[in-house]
Design a protein that fits this description.
Blueprint: H1 3-10, H2 16-26, H3 52-63, H4 70-80, H5 86-97, H6 106-119, H7 123-136, H8 142-148, H9 155-165, H10 167-178, H11 185-193, H12 196-205, H13 215-224, H14 227-233, H15 238-251, H16 259-263, H17 267-277, H18 285-300, H19 312-325, H20 327-330, H21 340-352, E1 366-372, E2 381-387, E3 390-391, H22 392-396, H23 405-408, E4 421-427, H24 432-435, E5 437-445, E6 448-455, E7 473-476, H25 477-489, H26 496-510, H27 513-516, E8 520-527, E9 534-541, E10 555-562, H28 568-581, E11 589-592, H29 595-600
Antiparallel strand pairs: 1-2, 2-3, 4-5, 5-6, 6-7, 8-9, 9-10, 10-11
């Protein structure tokens, strides 16, 4: 909390809304600061805090039935020990969301919600009011919700309520608190003041790279800028058109949360605006990369899941295909002028440029597409699985990308064997232990293959709503086997460093002694994240590991093999020969373990570890 906020907190007005309005008016130029405002931490009561179960029961008692006035609910919460703590506020939101509101009580509940949000003096009471307005709010409540949402404690419930009433206001409040990068501040100031010309200028000026634009930031910027309307007022502004396409691409990024694309109400309109005007864009590698990324999403990514009118998605995809086949656009990858990023992008376009426009005749319910995303954005290589034309991972999971082809295809995990096999199709970007993974059991049943017994997190992405049970899928076994075999042998998506990595991994799986002779064991092997034109080989080491009796903590090593321009097969052979002849610990670098263990074994600990 800043010194000014501390001084303000000492003299808080009785109502938290009044306090929020006060600190906003005191802000320079009336623009809220980065991260919004905080509330002073209230002193902890002397009594022992409630357990989770006790808090849930107390909140239900306080809310059911709803009291007639705000003061009564304040007293209930205080008497029952409901505090200004994250757990209690979350429980209040959940309880209000499930609260039965019999017919005829809506107006009374709305009146109570307005008392709580406008005159409430405690965080639990205001949170209850915000949760009620999520269900019962009207446009009259928008100004109050927009001010309360600037208090970080109330941002999420206020934005939830605003999303149903005015997505632009919800987006502006969200950006005020969560868009914290300096590069976004000029755009935010224009959005806060709703200065249309400034919004247009700043929208195309800020650097739209992945550091700044995760899926949610991209969606909220589009909502706050009223992007389809802005494009409609400036139909010939090609810089604005390109930026609109870029925001759509970032909204659908599978590495983050493609549910933002599905939640964006103007997605269909914006796709149509960009695709139908794409011929106005100057033919550059950046613009081609944007249009190709959009086409990949429309072909096999989260864009497929939008509520398209019949035939509309295919029409837009076809129009993009015609445009990118035009010689002005098709010749771009052959001009590799520029830096390393442009060369990466040119190679990706050469490999991937026609993939989304090839629509093979359906041979069954299953289609497997290996899709490499834009390497300049460091997008992943995914094994996109489509069932009845719909991509499985964003439809059923949407917490991270589909697994790589090396994991699902090279190791035969999608093959249907005689025994049932549970397969992980995707893992949350943050890790399975945090936000879960998507599993399915694959088994052969006579002349059919069955996918059943799905496992995924119990709630829908970005929601507390329970995730419904997923049905079993049955496939004709011959068609299924043919599709998996086709996908396993298709390497058109790959590039030299990635192919070298696959061949090195295969060689080490066949000859584990190449590493065990050095008391080492194979780890992760793939193309580099920071430089996709390198092959990265990782391995772990501990004395005695080769004999099966490792002594002490493992160290992890990383060996980076640059692409030397020779065929991948030759590079992989050279790498395997070197592993056979030279101890890889002499040319690899420590990248994991502990500093103490590295120094004990005589290795340097990297400064960046």
């Amino acid at each position: 909390m800043s010194a000014q906020e501390e001084r303000d907190a000492l003299t808080l007005p009785s109502a938290l809304y009044d306090y929020a309005l006060h600190v906003l008016r005191e802000s320079p130029e009336g623009v809220p600061p980065r991260r919004g405002f905080s509330l002073a931490q209230q002193p902890e009561p002397a009594e022992i805090p409630l357990s989770l179960e006790e808090a849930q029961s107390a909140i239900q008692d306080a809310l059911n039935p709803l009291p007639d006035d705000s003061a009564t609910l304040h007293r209930h919460f205080a008497r029952l020990g409901i505090r200004d703590c994250h757990m209690h506020l979350m429980l209040i939101r959940s309880a209000v969301a499930g609260l039965p509101l019999p017919a005829g009580q809506g107006e009374a509940a709305r009146s109570l919600a307005r008392q709580l949000t406008r005159t409430g003096t405690s965080a639990p009471a205001v949170t209850a009011g915000l949760a009620l307005l999520t269900r019962l709010g009207t446009p009259e409540d928008i100004p109050y919700l927009s001010v309360l949402g600037l208090l970080r404690k109330f941002t999420r419930p206020a934005v939830d309520a605003l999303d149903a009433l005015d997505p632009r206001s919800a987006a502006v409040v969200w950006l005020a608190v969560y868009a914290r990068r300096d590069e976004l501040r000029p755009l935010f100031r224009a959005l806060w003041r709703d200065e249309r010309d400034a919004i247009r200028a700043e929208l195309v000026a800020f650097p739209a790279d992945p550091r700044l634009l995760n899926t949610t930031v991209a969606r909220r910027i589009a909502e706050a800028a009223r992007l389809p309307d802005l494009l409609g007022r400036h139909p010939s502004d090609t810089a604005l058109l390109a930026r609109a396409g870029r925001l759509l691409v970032r909204m659908g990024c599978s590495r983050d949360a493609p549910t933002d694309l599905l939640a964006y109400r103007d997605a269909l309109t914006l796709y149509a605006s960009v695709a139908t005007r794409a011929d106005l864009l100057p033919p550059t590698l950046d613009n081609r990369a944007t249009l190709l990324s959009l086409a990949l999403d429309l072909s096999s990514g989260p864009g497929v899941l939008l509520n398209w009118p019949p035939g509309r998605r295919v029409t837009l995809l076809t129009s993009l295909g015609w445009l990118l086949a035009d010689p002005r656009w098709a010749s771009l990858p052959e001009t590799e002028a520029g830096g390393a990023d442009q060369r990466l992008r040119a190679g990706w376009i050469r490999r991937t440029g026609r993939q989304p426009f090839r629509r093979p005749a359906p041979t069954g319910r299953l289609r497997v597409e290996v899709v490499a995303g834009d390497p300049v954005d460091r997008e992943p290589v995914e094994t996109r699985i489509l069932l009845d034309g719909r991509p499985v991972v964003p439809a059923f999971f949407a917490r991270g990308p589909a697994h790589s082809p090396e994991y699902l295809l090279d190791e035969g995990r999608l093959r249907a064997g005689s025994e049932p096999s549970e397969v992980q199709l995707a893992e949350a970007s943050c890790t399975e232990g945090c936000c879960g993974a998507l599993y399915v059991t694959i088994r052969r049943d006579g002349d059919q293959v069955v996918w059943e017994n799905w496992r995924r997190p119990s709630t829908m992405p970005g929601s507390r709503a329970p995730a419904p049970e997923l049905a079993a899928y049955r496939f004709d076994a011959a068609a299924y086997d043919a599709e998996i075999a086709r996908a396993e042998t298709d390497r058109s998506w790959s590039w030299p460093a990635r192919t070298s990595a696959r061949l090195i991994k295969a060689g080490l799986m066949e000859r584990p002694d190449l590493l065990s002779r050095w008391d080492a064991k194979r780890g992760w092997i793939s193309s580099g994240f920071d430089d996709p034109d390198t092959t990265v080989v990782t391995f772990v080491y501990a004395p005695g590991l080769g004999s099966g009796k490792p002594d002490g903590i493992f160290l992890r090593f990383r060996w980076v093999v640059p692409d030397d321009g020779t065929p991948p097969e030759a590079q992989a052979t050279a790498a395997l020969n070197r592993l056979a002849e030279e101890d890889p610990k002499t040319y690899g670098q420590v990248c994991g373990g502990t500093r103490e263990r590295a120094e004990e074994l005589g290795f340097s600990w990297p400064d960046s570890a």
